[in-house]
């Protein structure tokens, strides 16, 4: 007889355990986010195990949040709450902050900001000369304000994923220079976030566009132009999509490369909104409703600005609309009909600038418009009909609107975040960005006449792809010297707006111990200096840095040294061969020299083809080397290569090689360098500590406020809930008249206290009052809970008794007395279970009868815990027998082979012997199968549980249900 119920229960418990283990593994998985911190709106993208790329919702369950922060009376609010507060107190609500990062107080962009928002009190940071907002007694640096917005983004992402987030990818405008980028990294650090990468907005959009069109990309380059008009700026970027084979891994991956960029950093929706605001203000002044100039009242200007933003959006879809504001100034209302034609007339000069970024991007890429596959729009203000008409007429084709204009950048950046973070595996999609502002090295060199002259060498030219590394060689300096790193050719790139980047100087590098190192290493006749090499890096965030500086020397080995080097070179050559196999350099030609590690440990940095062009990877700073030196170097290279090639020759070949030049090895010695940043220094040191302390204080205030609000709400809710419940018979019957009266009295006292003396109490007081009230009321609530839950607990006990009795009836068939071949259980075990069931039934019937005799307001006799304890006892008895049945196996009795029959002939003996053997073999093969088939089966007969591992694909926005084979589709 088959036993089903116990085995099924075990399988259910096992399945639950596996499910919990899966959830536990997900709970400890890493989650990352991307933040599109725009001038007007902030979007947050998240990816976590089990949750592919998605936009995190804010507390209002919206997909984007105003990039606004406001302070009032010690309170701090964000988003829509900050915008609402900003209408009443505009000087305390800060918005459109992103473009103020990394700028000194005298920057033209800061002056423009002051002109647009005259009610802000902006002062200068005395140490760093940066922007500081002053609101009453409080002062906030621009990095502190941005850091607080990033903290809010972090909260939204953590609420969405239910995981702690510490890593992110941040989106920046492509025209951000070194000062702006490092300032944003400092702000993220203040927000306790690690920046995996700063990605340009158009690059993020291009990546998002490509990952969902991967199948359309092939070995032939396809060109697209992405056009963005946001709140603050307008930009255009020409990119190419192409499949490229990696030389090292031999794998083919899609590559999106930025080829040309154009932008206008003051053309955007904000400028249109400002002009409409000023127009409405002028029209209100013309009405003469009040003698006060509306432009002199900050609150009135904030109201006009808000209405201008609403009106701008409405006029994008309607030809006319009314602007109306209640109580604009001196309690005077304002209502005015505005047509789209009037709005376009206000912005007529702005529309003349719409196509300039597009043309500049094409010029930078060196491409004509007819090779562009599509012009793709993104950014909120690309929805303006007039702007679309201008672009359509300019390019002579329809505009592509097949991406989410608001979220495309954020989704592309979160894909990149998943690629960079540990714990995720996504399909490779390589991005190559382009340098907008060239970077050069400037140094002084002594000429033939003895006079110093300034030399400039370009490191990263305009539209060079990055990330990449570059090396510059100084081969004429024999003493300590210094050089500077600065922007180059800004006038050709920025024109009249070159001063918006701030300082053109980026860093001053001072090298020391040059003469000392040279003297110490070139004392021998067989050592020659090959110059000082400086290694520079432009990382994937577009941030420039000096990696290291080293003195490079060539040592000509003597015959003894060469023999010693030859003895050691066998293993070295094997190591080099192995390393080439793994690095993909096995097909490279022999190099001129063999590099050896110097005593100072300075190693040269190799440049991969993806990081820099090999031909341009190293620039010679001092081009004064003579042709003879160059020729000599070339000859040495050739002969050395031949020497190494023929090193294993024997006989006549060895004799010929006896006249070859000695072997040359390369030595490297680190040169101490000190880098001094000459642009706006990032927030660091004491300034950073002070900012971090201020933000911690604000966080403490917010946490205390949140705790107080939670405690107050909990106390109010409990008081109201208790008063309502005591009016219901089912609760009132569970307490004595004295208890009910005490609770009512206490609730009445607390209700009066909350609206009088307790209105301003702290969180600790509220929590203490709530604990006291719970102590009075919980006894009544506990009785009600017991009476309410007891029927369900008794039903569960009844089901367990019935199941146990069914198991007992079947178990009796597996005893030695009933079925000798299946003696699974002993008589004592059967009697023990039978006794446990009988005692449980007797206990239940007795306790239920006694409990029903008692009133509801006395101590409970039969508690839910008593019932669950009895269930646990009975469950242990049944499980013991179930496990024994599961592990039991029948004893297999060996079958003796039959005796061979005697025959009278040799042939008959042979045949009989053969038949006997076959019969014996057949029995031996069948016997175990027969016994196994007779084995009792529990449940479905399956003892094995297949464990599946869920593959998390952060590139997918929708997951199809997987077939039985477990296959999945990865975008």
UniProtKB/TrEMBL annotation:
Q: Tell me the leader sequence span.
A: 1-29
Q: Name one GO molecular function term.
A: ATP binding
Q: Which keywords does this chain's UniProt record carry?
A: ATP-binding, Chaperone, Endoplasmic reticulum, Nucleotide-binding, Signal
Q: Which PANTHER family match?
A: HSC70CB, ISOFORM G-RELATED (PTHR45639), HYPOXIA UP-REGULATED PROTEIN 1 (PTHR45639:SF3)
Query: Basic and acidic residues: which segments have biased composition?
Result: 613-643, 956-971
Q: Which InterPro entries match?
A: ATPase_NBD, Heat_shock_70_CS, HSP70_C_sf, HSP70_peptide-bd_sf, Hsp_70_fam
The keyword Nucleotide-binding is annotated on this UniProt entry? yes
Cited SUPFAM superfamilies? Actin-like ATPase domain, Heat shock protein 70kD (HSP70), C-terminal subdomain
What the record says about family reads:
Belongs to the heat shock protein 70 family.
Organism source for this protein?
A: Anopheles darlingi (Mosquito)
What is the protein name for this chain?
Hypoxia up-regulated protein 1
GO annotations under biological process? endoplasmic reticulum unfolded protein response
Its main subcellular localisation, reduced to a broad class, is endoplasmic reticulum
Q: Please name the Gene3D superfamilies in this protein's record.
A: 1.20.1270.10, 3.30.30.30, 3.30.420.40, Actin, Chain A, domain 4 (3.90.640.10), Substrate Binding Domain Of DNAk, Chain A, domain 1 (2.60.34.10)
């Amino acid at each position: 007889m088959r036993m089903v119920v116990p085995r099924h229960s075990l399988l259910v418990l096992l399945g639950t355990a596996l499910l919990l283990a899966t959830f536990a593994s997900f709970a400890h998985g890493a989650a990352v986010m991307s933040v599109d911190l725009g001038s007007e709106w902030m979007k947050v993208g998240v990816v976590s195990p089990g949750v592919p790329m998605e936009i995190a919702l804010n507390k209002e369950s919206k997909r984007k949040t105003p990039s606004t922060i406001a302070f009032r009376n010690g309170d701090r609010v964000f988003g829509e709450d900050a915008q609402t507060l900003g209408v009443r107190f505009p000087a305390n609500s800060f918005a459109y902050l992103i473009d103020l990062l990394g700028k000194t107080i005298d920057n033209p962009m800061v002056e423009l900001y002051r002109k647009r928002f005259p009610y802000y009190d902006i002062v200068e940071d005395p140490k760093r000369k940066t922007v500081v907002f002053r609101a009453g007694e409080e002062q906030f640096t621009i990095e502190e304000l941005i850091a607080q917005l990033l903290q809010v983004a972090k909260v939204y992402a953590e609420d969405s994923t239910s995981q702690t987030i510490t890593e992110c990818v941040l989106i920046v405008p492509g025209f951000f220079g070194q000062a702006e980028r490092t300032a944003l990294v400092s702000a993220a650090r203040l927000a306790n976030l690690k920046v995996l990468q700063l990605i340009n907005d158009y690059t993020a959009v291009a990546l998002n566009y490509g990952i969902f069109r991967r199948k359309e990309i092939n070995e032939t380059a396809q060109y697209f132009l992405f056009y963005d008009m946001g709140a603050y700026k307008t930009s255009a970027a020409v990119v190419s999509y192409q499949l490229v084979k990696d030389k090292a891994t031999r794998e083919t991956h899609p590559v999106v490369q930025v080829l040309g960029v154009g932008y206008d950093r003051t053309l955007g929706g904000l400028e249109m909104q400002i002009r409409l605001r000023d127009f409405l203000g002028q029209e209100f002044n013309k009405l003469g409703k009040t003698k006060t100039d509306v432009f002199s009242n900050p609150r009135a200007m904030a109201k006009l600005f808000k209405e201008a933003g609403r009106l701008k959006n409405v006029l994008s879809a309607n030809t006319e609309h009314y602007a109306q504001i209640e109580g604009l100034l001196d309690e005077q209302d304002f209502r005015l009909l505005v047509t789209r034609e009037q709005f376009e007339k206000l912005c007529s000069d702005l529309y003349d600038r719409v196509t300039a970024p597009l043309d500049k991007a094409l010029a930078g890429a060196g491409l004509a418009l007819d090779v562009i596959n599509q012009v793709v729009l993104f950014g909120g203000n690309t929805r303006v009909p007039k702007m679309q008409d201008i672009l359509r007429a300019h390019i002579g084709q329809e505009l592509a609107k097949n991406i989410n204009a608001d979220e495309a950048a954020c989704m592309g950046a979160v894909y990149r975040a998943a690629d960079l973070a540990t714990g995720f595996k996504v399909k490779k999609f390589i991005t190559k960005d382009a340098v907008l502002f060239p970077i050069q090295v400037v140094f002084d060199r002594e000429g033939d006449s003895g006079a110093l002259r300034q030399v400039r060498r370009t490191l990263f030219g305009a539209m060079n792809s990055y990330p990449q590394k570059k090396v510059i060689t100084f081969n004429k300096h024999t003493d300590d010297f210094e050089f500077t790193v600065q922007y180059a050719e800004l006038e050709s790139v920025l024109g009249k707006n070159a001063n918006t980047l701030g300082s053109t100087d980026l860093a001053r590098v001072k090298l020391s111990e040059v003469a000392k190192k040279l003297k110490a290493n070139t004392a021998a006749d067989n050592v020659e200096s090959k110059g000082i090499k400086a290694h520079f890096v432009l990382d994937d965030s577009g941030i420039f840095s000096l990696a290291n500086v080293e003195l490079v020397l060539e040592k000509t080995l003597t015959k003894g040294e060469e023999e010693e080097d030859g003895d050691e070179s066998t293993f070295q050559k094997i190591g080099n061969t192995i390393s080439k196999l793994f690095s993909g350099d096995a097909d490279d030609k022999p190099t001129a020299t063999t590099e050896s590690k110097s005593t100072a440990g300075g190693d040269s940095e190799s440049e991969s083809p993806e990081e820099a062009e090999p031909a341009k990877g190293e620039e010679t700073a001092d081009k004064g080397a003579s042709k003879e030196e160059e020729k000599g170097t070339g000859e040495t290279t050739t002969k050395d290569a031949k020497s190494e090639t023929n090193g294993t020759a024997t006989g006549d070949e060895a004799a010929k090689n006896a006249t070859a030049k000695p072997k040359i090895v390369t030595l490297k010695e680190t040169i101490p360098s000190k880098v001094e940043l000459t642009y706006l220094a990032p927030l660091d040191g004491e300034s950073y500590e002070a900012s971090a302390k201020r933000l911690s204080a604000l966080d403490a205030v917010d946490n205390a406020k949140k705790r107080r609000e939670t405690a107050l709400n909990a106390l109010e809710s409990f008081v109201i809930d208790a008063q309502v419940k005591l009016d219901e018979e089912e609760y009132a019957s569970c307490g004595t008249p004295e208890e009910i009266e005490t609770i009512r009295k206490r609730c009445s006292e607390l209700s009066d206290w909350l609206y009088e003396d307790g209105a301003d109490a702290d969180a600790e007081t509220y929590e203490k009052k709530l604990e006291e009230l719970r102590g009075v009321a919980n006894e009544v609530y506990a009785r009600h809970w017991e009476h309410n839950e007891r029927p369900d607990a008794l039903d569960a006990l009844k089901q367990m008794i019935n199941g146990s009795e069914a198991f007992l009836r079947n178990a009796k068939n597996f005893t030695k007395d009933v079925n000798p071949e299946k003696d699974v259980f002993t008589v004592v075990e059967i009697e023990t279970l039978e006794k446990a069931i009988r005692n449980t039934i007797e206990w239940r019937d007795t306790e239920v009868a006694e409990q029903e005799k008692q009133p509801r307001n006395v101590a409970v006799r039969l508690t839910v815990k008593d019932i669950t304890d009895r269930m646990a006892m009975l469950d242990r008895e049944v499980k013991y027998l179930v496990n024994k049945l599961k592990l039991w196996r029948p004893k297999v009795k060996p079958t003796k082979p039959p005796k061979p029959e005697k025959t009278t002939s040799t042939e008959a003996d042979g045949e009989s012997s053969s038949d006997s053997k076959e019969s014996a073999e057949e029995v031996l093969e069948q016997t175990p199968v027969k016994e196994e088939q007779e084995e009792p089966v529990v449940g479905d007969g399956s003892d094995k549980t297949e464990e599946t591992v869920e593959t998390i694909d952060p590139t997918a926005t929708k997951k199809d249900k997987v077939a039985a084979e477990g296959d999945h589709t990865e975008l």
